[in-house]
Amino acid sequence: MPRLARALLAAAAALAAAAAPAAAQLPAGGFSSNAELIRNVATGPSSGGRLVGRHFYLTTGRELRIFDVSAPEDPQQVGRLALTSPGAAEQRAPEEDPDTNGRILLTTNGGNLQVYDVSNPSAPALAAELDGLEQHTITCVLDCTWAYGSEGAIVDLRDPKAPKLAGEWTEAAESGSAHDVTEVAPGLVLTATQPILLLDVREDPTKPKVLSTTDAPGFVHQTLWPHGGTDTMMLSAGEAIGPACSESASATFITWSATGAPGAPFKLLGQFAMSTGVGADGRMPATTFCTHWFTEHPSFRGGGLVAMGWYEHGTRFLQVARDGKIEEIGFYLPAGSRSSAAYWISDRVVYVADYYRGLDVVRWTGDIPPGAPAPAPGGDPAPPSSSPPDRAATFDDLVRLPSAKRCQRPGRLAVRVRRHDADPVTSLRARIGRKTVARARGRALRKPVKVRRLPRKRFKLVVQVTTRSGHVVAGGRSYRPCARKR
Fold first, then answer.
1. E strands of 152-187, at which residues?
2. Helix (H, G, I), strand (E, B) or coil at 277
């Protein structure tokens, strides 16, 4: 978010925080048929977080909160700490895009850099603060031994208790409109600037080398290059001021060909923009800003599914084809929303950081667009039926649900577990609403798991499975019961 807007947001966030009790959960609002709210966690205004391992680190306007997300649908807060700068009694906009390696966590507030010790998630603590570092965002580089700030600062963090300013990466090449930087692979940094820079900092982090520059059609807010900078596609998004910014070149989500990278510039493939509308159709008549933080689905590879925060337009689910063309296939538009960022926690669960609502836990129940097959060790594509080896199995890899085209009868609705030798399913639980309607473990999973009691009205069956490694995924589908004989 532009810094000029953060003061306005601070006042609005204070009103939103005061309007709801700390323990209250906000209502769901509207969403497409393939997305649903699991729960709202009233953390106070939030604009971003970071997932590392089984912990999700969320920053609000005043606090750092740490959640154990071993069960993605039910995050459990394990740690909480007041942000100490610029002052516990002062209101400010939520901290965007915190970064961490699971041992230290970085934020920038009040013109300073804060280094937090999060090695014990239940007892986070301020480790150090570096004054006079006015950066919009700050990013870990080389396992948080260095940090790169959005406006150019290079910080030496080899001793995290004594951070030192060590240079300016902006001296490597001319660029403007700096907003963010992302380490896409160890020592490879992609900037959200105009033009976009790809930097190599592996040899000397204080003297980055420019590998390529790419002109963008508008302001660049965020860049991602999946699979450690090896994917055939790079993704970016802009940001623009409302109330109607669908015509702005800066208010788009963009796909880029990365086949010539890292030496050649990225080539633009497709763009997507939101238009205004009415809430009943999943669009709002006006927004304060357009587009914000996004993440790609775990199965994304040269195409696939992306979730993106879009301010008052809520969270949008975008399908990226292998040629880079983009199509919206779902949305989550809650009441009183100002969605900042969307994070895939599992193949079916998305966490949404919201400036007004706090943290929403959302389930994606629709189809998951397939990406390209993962490359085999020799460089040739793997067979299309195999799961990419560098990602956890998705729900669709593990479970087969009955078709929704036919009505369902008690005892005939059956869930089948697919064979997955790399990480087989060890337990299954099915529920309708809050009621568990079927369970199975071990050898019982070799047979179809039947649901013997069904509601008389249309219902949604949600299935959660756990694999041998402890991986938990869930998915669901809506069904209609067969008419009962009189």
1. 153-156, 164-168, 176-185
2. coil
